[in-house]
Structures are given as structure tokens and as C-alpha cells.
TrEMBL record:
Region Disordered, residue ranges: 351-374
Positions of transmembrane segments: 227-253
Domain of life, per lineage: Eukaryota
Organism: Aspergillus cavernicola
Keywords in alphabetical order: Membrane, Signal, Transmembrane, Transmembrane helix
Signal peptide: 1-23
Protein name (record): Uncharacterized protein
Length: 374
């Protein structure tokens, strides 16, 4: 009986010591088991809450080293469906809940207003925290209380604690931001977590999770095509604009030239029928007498040009006998030689009709008396 009681007491003490020595949980057969040993379960004994403790205490260094290995591992257990990345994120959620809400166990009592600012997230972060499995690692992401505005407000509060080194808890804000990223963009199987651990365990606040940091080759090609399209569209639009401007300038100049050509042309003859300047040259107005002679019917008439002149026709005087019996020619006029119309002479304004010299006929014998026939 006593032996049995001692055996039960011994097993109880061993179990209690085992619970106290339990470390961070990881995937069975994971290459991170040595860095997270013992790896049966995550407990509050393996958690620290202030930033400086992750660099100055054994517990803090072990936690950072284990989670760093898990987030950079691509190992997955085919039987249980668990992966190292999922357990690494679970350990971050466990640390945040323990330090901020004291659940499942109180780790430290740090005085700041951030637990109040993060109160709206408590229900979601504690959801199934004590019963993790390969089937419920992300189910808590779908709870209504895990809202982006609550996460942003909570992270901003813990980012302000960096002003005091002894109570700085910026790591808590980065733990929360990493959890939000994985809820929005779940890490694919056999892929590393896209946010490097060196950024998570840093006093520089992570940016909000607005874009997926992991993309497949198809998405990369699509992104490259979209980028090329974005670059090409403005260039194509500029070329089209230049072509339209050149075409518009061409038609504008063409229209102006047509208008100028119409202005240089005279009006319709029917509209200017009473305008004598159309048919009367300038030189004809300066020399009306010569113009009248050049355009007279005598010049342009074929009979006047080509028919022979009579011996005593126009241009000669007429006979007159004085009282003393002497005859003479009087009343003769100047003789104008006929002008043959030609393009070079008939229409030249410079040509003037000059009078021809007159040679009188020889005097008649016998003092102007006609010889009587015998």
C-alpha cells in the first residue's frame, strides 16, 4: 500500500516536473525540434513579454530561435497536416495572448493602456488557443472581433511603448501584424513565411498587410504584363495625340491656303459687267487716240489689210485749177499704212502710229494743161 502511494506520488511529481519543462510546440519530425526542445506543448514558462528580454534571457532567446526556425521552414507532416509555419504563428499568438490578456496564464504584469486598446481582439485571439490542431490553425481568423481597425489601433498603441526601453513591447505589435497577414494571405504549403523573423523581432513596426508578398509564377507573369501595359499605355496615348495634332495642322493649313487662293481670284464676270477695267487695258486709257486707231475696223478688217489701195484713193488731195489756169493738189491728208494684226504688234501698248512722209506726184506738162489728142 505504501509502495503504491509512493509510486503514485512519484508519477505525480514527474508529471508536474514534465509540465514545467514542456517547451514550444512544433511539428513532429520537424528539423526545428532540436531548437524548440522539448516540443510537447507551448506553456507560459517559455514566454517573455518585453523586447529586451528576447536578447538578454535564455527563455527569450530560445523563443526567438525556435520561432525563427519554424517560420523559415518548409516542412509539413503529411499525416497530421501540420506545418512548421503554422506552429510558429501559433506560438506568436500564444505569446501575445499571454502577455496582453493573461490567457491561458499570466506571464507579466506590465502597466500600460494597451490591453484596454486591444480589448476588442481578445475573443478572437483566445479562440481554441488551448486546443490547437492541424484543422483549426486559421479558424480564429474568421471571428467577427478580429477586425482590421482594431488591429491597427492595438498595434499603434504598442508601437508607442518604444519610448521607454525598460517597458518597450513593439514586438507584440509585430506579432499581431504577422498574424493579420497570414489571415489575409495564407502561406501556401511548403512555403516559408514571407515576413522574415528579423523584421518581426524588431522594434520597427511592420507595415499594414495590404498586399500579398508571395505570388506564383503565373501571378508574377501577369504582374509583369500589367506593368508593361501600364508603361506602354501613356506612350501610346502620347503618340496618338501627336498624330491627331499633325492631322489637324495639315487640314488647317490646307483650309487657309484654299481661302487665300479664293481671295486672290477676281469676282465673276457677270457680277462685274459694268466694270470697264476688265476689257480696257491701262495703256489704252492713257493713249485713247492710238487705241481707237489700232482697234478701228480699218485695221482688223481683212479687206482693209489685204486689198490694194486705189491710186487716187484716200490719202491724196484733189485737183484744183486757179483762175490763171494753173492746177494744184489741195486738201491731201496723211496716209496711214495698213497694220497687220499680230500678237507682237497689234496689242503692244508701246507702239504708236507714226505719220508717213508724203511725196507729191510730178507736175503735169504744159503748165498743168492736159494735152489734147490730135
Amino acid at each position: 500500500m505504501d509502495f503504491a502511494l509512493r509510486s503514485v506520488a512519484g508519477w505525480a511529481v514527474f508529471a508536474l516536473l514534465g509540465q514545467l519543462s514542456l517547451g514550444l510546440r512544433t511539428t513532429p519530425g520537424s528539423p526545428c525540434e532540436n531548437r524548440c526542445r522539448p516540443s510537447n506543448n507551448t506553456t507560459a514558462a517559455e514566454i517573455v513579454c518585453q523586447d529586451y528580454e528576447y536578447n538578454t534571457t535564455d527563455v527569450g532567446r530560445k523563443f526567438e530561435d525556435c520561432v525563427e526556425c519554424q517560420l523559415q521552414s518548409t516542412f509539413e507532416d503529411d499525416i497530421s497536416g501540420q506545418s512548421d509555419v503554422e506552429w510558429g504563428l501559433y506560438n506568436l499568438r500564444y505569446a501575445f495572448s499571454s502577455c496582453v490578456y493573461g490567457f491561458p496564464e499570466q506571464v507579466a504584469n506590465i502597466s500600460n493602456p494597451c490591453p484596454v486598446a486591444c480589448g476588442g481582439l481578445e475573443t478572437s485571439l483566445e479562440y481554441e488557443l488551448e486546443d490547437p490542431s492541424g484543422l483549426n490553425f486559421e479558424t480564429w481568423c474568421g471571428t467577427a472581433s478580429f477586425a482590421d481597425n482594431e488591429i491597427t489601433e492595438c498595434g499603434a498603441c504598442y508601437n508607442l511603448t518604444a519610448e521607454r526601453a525598460d517597458t518597450s513591447q513593439v514586438y507584440m505589435a509585430n506579432f499581431l501584424e504577422s498574424l493579420r497577414y497570414n489571415c489575409h494571405f495564407k502561406t501556401p504549403t511548403e512555403e516559408e513565411f514571407p515576413i522574415t523573423p528579423s523584421r518581426i523581432f524588431s522594434e520597427s513596426l511592420l507595415p499594414s498587410s495590404t498586399s500579398n508578398l508571395i505570388s506564383s509564377s503565373d501571378d508574377s507573369d501577369s504582374g509583369t504584363d500589367n506593368l508593361a501595359l501600364i508603361i506602354a499605355m501613356p506612350i501610346l496615348g502620347f503618340v496618338i495625340l501627336l498624330c491627331l495634332l499633325a492631322l489637324g495642322c495639315f487640314f488647317f493649313i490646307r483650309s487657309r491656303r484654299k481661302k487665300a487662293r479664293r481671295l486672290r481670284q477676281p469676282g465673276h464676270l457677270h457680277a462685274r459687267w459694268n466694270d470697264t477695267s476688265i476689257s480696257t487695258p491701262q495703256w489704252a486709257m492713257e493713249y485713247p487716240a492710238q487705241a481707237q486707231g489700232m482697234y478701228s475696223p480699218a485695221i482688223y478688217s481683212p479687206q482693209a489689210v489685204y486689198s490694194p489701195q486705189p491710186e487716187y484713193g484716200p490719202g491724196f488731195g484733189f485737183g484744183f485749177v486757179d483762175t490763171d489756169g494753173r492746177g494744184s493738189e489741195i486738201g491731201y491728208s496723211k496716209v496711214h499704212e495698213p497694220v497687220i494684226a499680230s500678237p507682237s504688234t497689234a496689242y503692244s501698248p508701246e507702239e504708236k502710229i507714226m505719220p508717213q512722209p508724203y511725196f507729191p506726184p510730178p507736175p503735169l506738162p504744159n503748165n498743168g494743161k492736159m494735152k489734147q489728142p490730135e
